[in-house]
Amino acid sequence: MKKMDKVLSLLGLSARGRNLVSGEFSTEKAVKEGKAALVIIGTDASDNTKKMFTNMCNYRSIPIYFYSTKEEIGRAIGKQMRASVAVTDFGMAANIEKHLDALKECGGK
Q: pTM higher than 0.70 for the full model?
């Protein structure tokens, strides 16, 4: 089993703190209701899913990242495969976003 990275660990912590929703319907609902602070989509999600959430998040100015795989995201939050998750706590979202930006700068996932 691959060692979990910081972003996936923080997603798991968010899930345990009930500050995260997962799955396409729940994520879409959180975005539309303005409850989502950050959206993460698995890199292996369908093109349709990626396009739908990109458009939805850009329209509402919600940060969106494509990170990890559906299987790894699901395992990190204690569920089965999840193509999309939305972090609903703004402080936790800022912390996760900081780690995602740092990965992007050093050429990570």
A: yes
Cα gap 38→40, rounded to integer Å: 7
Position 3 scores a pLDDT of 47
- Token pair 């509402």 in the structure block, residue: 60
Range of the domain at 24: 6-102
Of 30, 25, 17, 3, residue with least CA distance to 95: 17
Q: What is the CATH number of the domain that holds 46?
A: 3.30.1330.30
pLDDT in tens, 46-99: 999 999 999 999 999 999 999 999 999 999 999 999 999 999 999 999 999 999
Say which residue the tokens 């992007």 belong to. Answer: 104
Among 23, 20, 92, CA closest to 53: 23
For the chain, counts of helices (H) and of strands (E):
5, 4
Is 107 within the bounds of a domain? no
